[in-house]
Structure formats: C-alpha cells, structure tokens
Design brief:
By secondary structure, the chain is α/β, with parallel strands linked by helices. Helix content is about 40%, strand content about 20%. Helix 4 runs parallel beside helix 15, helix 5 packs antiparallel against helix 8 (about 155-160) and helix 5 packs parallel to helix 12. The protein is globular.
Length: about 450
C-alpha cells in the first residue's frame, strides 16, 4: 500500500516537473523569438541605449542623480560636478522625459545606490498640457519606452510600463518590434537595421556625430553627458512654437507625479532640488505667459519646503549666458555653455552664494522690463496652410522693425529680388503660406531714432 502511494505521488511529481519544464521551455522559446524580432525590426534609440548601459555599469556608486529631459544631459557636465562637489554624479535624463518617467527612473536609481541628493529639472515643455485637457503624459508614451526598452527587468520596470497607457497600447510598450509592423517584409529596412547593429560603435556603446556643414560634433562623453560643440547662429534663429500657457498650465497627471517624486524623496530622507535649465530667449519669448508655469512650480515647491531655481530668471551680471556661442539650438547648451552653467549651478544649489535669491529676477516679466531692448529671432505658428511669424523681442513697445524678405526661387541661380514688407513700424507679425521659404532680414531700431541697433538675417 505504501509503495502504491509512493508511486502515485511520484507519478504526479513527474507530471508537474514535465509541465513546469514545458512552460519554462515555451517561455524561453518565446523570449528568443521576440529577441530576434526586436533585433531585426526595432530601431534603437541611440542615446538612451548608451545611457542605460552606462547607468547599470555605474549602478551602486552613484550619489547625486539628475533627472529630466535633454536639457539635463546637454547642460550639466557630471565629471565637472564630481570635481566640484566630491560626489559621483550621474545624469539619468532622457529625451522628452515626462514626470512619470522621472518618478520611475528615480525608483530605479534608488534601488542600488545610496543617493545623497536628487536634482529634478522641470523643462516646461514636458510638464504643461499638450493641448487643453490633454496631459503630456498622455501623449508621451514614446518618450517613456525610450527608457523601458533598455531598463533591466524588474517589478519597477513592469509598474512603469503598465502605467504608460491602456491595454490597447501594451503590445507596443512590451514588444518593441510590434511598433514597426509596417516594415514587415521590407528587406531594405531590415538590412539597414541589422547593418547598424553590426558596427563596432554599436557593440562598444559609442556615439559620435560630426555635422557636414562644419558646425561642430556631438558625442556621448560619460555619466550621461551629451557633449556638443555646435553653435546657434543667427541664420537658424527660427522657432516653431505651438504652446500658449494658461494659468496653472501643468497637466493634472504631471503635477501628481511631481508631488509623488517630492514625497518619495522626503519619505526616504533624500534631499531634492527642483530647477529649470536656461534656454535661449527666442524660445522663452515665444512662450506666452511663461510666468504662469513658474508660479505654479514655485507654489508646489513652497508647499513641500524644497528649493526651486529657474535659471531662466538669472540676472545677466551673474550668468551672462544668453549668446549663440553657448547654445547648440534654441533649447540646449553646447559644451562651452554647459561648462559655464555647471559651475554656476553647483555654486547656487550648494548655497555657497549667500542670499542666492538676489541673483534671480522674481518673474520673467520683470526680467524683460529690466533688460535692454533686443531681438532674438523669429517664431511661428501654423494654421490651415498659413504660417504666422512673430518677431521675438523683449519689448512690446518702443522698437520699430524693417522686415525684408528674399524668397527662394525654384529656378536655378538663387532667390528673387528682396521685398520690404514693412518699413520701420512697431508691428511684430506677418504671414506667409507654409510652403514659402527664403531669407528674412530684420532691422530693429529704438522708436524715433535713425540708427539701427540690431540686424538679424534668418532662414525661413
């Protein structure tokens, strides 16, 4: 009887083992198939792939973590910060990082590192509503899967992925190759993808790109630093601005995640500092009611008793960075700007400047009132085939503009004759169709004076 019972249990055990082995084998085969499909179809996000490789290589020794968008990885040099503050600094920032991403990346960084300080950059573009009632988080799935594609499997990663969208998007989120379903059977695409992944640069996690026009290069350096030697010339001072901020412009979900980040740090005794990196005045001027955003973040920071620094409000005598030689484009600093800003940033946030609030204007409107008249470029908005251009200057009154257009010609040999469409008037707006291109010359002078104070020549 005992032998029969032993055989019975033995038989059940064998069946369970076989069933478990079958399930495990199916899972392994499934993972192998999805891995192959990802390899041949999914294009990599070059920056984030290298970033996460280096993060996990440094995991365990990171002390200060910097979260946010590309404004972090372009603007702050971690090695320079190492030398200044004596800690190991890492930029865990990614392109278009929304605040839900910052929250889960913070949790990832906190798992194996003894964090001394968290610095959260709050570029308004990633936090305010995309359009009325639509949070950036709701349209930012691709900005987040740039991270989830390369994070190690864990409960935190799974929670992050499940938070990104509803069930209808889970296939795209969990299986990258599915996003490229339109490329099925496109052998040219498959060959290009596999060739890109077969290079030494790919296997060595290296990134270097040099511009054909001679305007510098871009390179991954170390600890999440994107080094660019490009400069922002006058001819490129054209900005597509489609955001107009209302009062309390931060999205509801974005605000909720900002509060979760602050609470997470405070519950664990990790100091946190909120900040905004400097962007070119062209973009700031084009953002109507920027102070609405500053006021909202300042109020939240005050509620939790954390520091908030908006370096767009810095007084020029302390950080004279608003020059094209320090920017790579309208939103990001180049290596020269990053070196300057990193040193100043560290000095301010470490409170080595007594009464540092005196370094800042209280609002962007105060800054505009107290800076000399200046023109920063052109910004535009499109609507039903019409492109409306605005002269980006820091004064609403008191400056006159002469605007001359030289439209590009389809005929060989260059553009058409220059046409003065406005001769020294205070108007700052003109419209063209979206398919018109050429060169715009803006001459600005103080109202009532004959001398031109500034001339910009901009490609449009």
């Amino acid at each position: 009887m005992i032998v029969k019972m032993d055989l019975k249990f033995y038989g059940k055990g064998v069946r369970y083992v076989k069933r478990a082995a079958g399930i495990a084998g199916a899972v392994i085969i499934f993972c192998m198939i999805t891995g192959v499909m990802n390899y041949i179809y999914a294009s990599d996000y070059i920056w984030e792939r290298i970033l996460w490789h280096n993060f996990y290589k440094d995991d365990g020794k990171i002390e200060n973590i910097y979260l946010g968008s590309s404004h972090v990885y372009c603007d702050l040099n971690p090695r320079q910060l190492d030398d200044i503050n004596g800690r190991y600094n890492f930029n865990l920032s990614s392109s278009g990082q929304t605040l839900n991403g910052s929250y889960y990346l913070l949790r990832e960084a906190d798992k194996n590192n003894n964090l001394s300080h968290v610095y959260l950059e709050l570029y308004y573009w990633c936090s305010v509503n995309y359009s009325p009632g639509i949070d950036m988080i709701d349209v930012g799935a691709s900005a987040n899967w740039k991270n989830t594609d390369y994070m190690k499997n864990s409960y935190n990663k799974c929670s992050y992925m499940l938070s990104l969208a509803g069930t209808e998007k889970y296939a795209d989120i969990f299986f990258p190759f599915i996003r490229y379903r339109t490329k099925l059977g496109n052998w040219d695409y498959i060959i290009r993808t596999m060739e890109a992944k077969g290079t030494d640069e790919y296997s060595d996690f290296e990134f270097y790109f040099e511009y054909d026009d001679g305007n510098g290069y871009e390179e991954y350096k170390q600890q999440g630093y994107y080094c660019s030697t490009r400069e922002f010339p006058d001819g490129q001072r054209l900005y597509n601005q489609n955001r107009v901020l209302d009062k309390d412009p931060m999205g509801e979900k974005s605000e909720r995640y900002l509060r979760k980040i602050i609470c997470y740090c405070q519950e664990r005794g990790i100091p946190i500092t909120l900040f905004v990196s400097p962007i070119d005045e062209l973009q700031l001027i084009s953002t109507e009611h920027y102070d609405y955003y500053v006021d909202q973040v300042r109020e939240i920071a005050g509620e939790y008793g954390v520091e908030f620094y908006d370096f767009n409000l810095i007084k020029e005598e302390y950080l004279d960075i608003q020059h094209g030689e320090y920017f790579m484009d309208a939103g990001h600093l180049n290596n020269k700007g990053a070196d300057m800003f990193t040193a100043f940033f560290s000095m301010v946030v470490s409170e080595r400047v007594p009464e540092s609030e005196k370094l800042f204007y209280t609002s962007y409107e105060e800054k505009r009132r107290n800076t000399p008249p200046s023109v920063y470029g052109l910004y535009y908005r499109d609507s039903e085939g019409i492109r409306t251009f605005h002269v980006a200057s820091n004064k609403e009154e008191g400056i006159e503009y002469r605007i001359t257009l030289t439209q590009a010609s389809e005929e060989p040999g260059g553009g058409m004759e220059p046409l003065v469409i406005q001769d020294f008037k205070g108007d700052k707006e003109f419209s063209l169709t979206v398919d018109e291109h050429g060169v715009c010359k803006i001459e600005a002078r103080i109202e009532g004076e004959a001398e031109v104070m500034q001339t910009l020549i901009i490609n449009y």
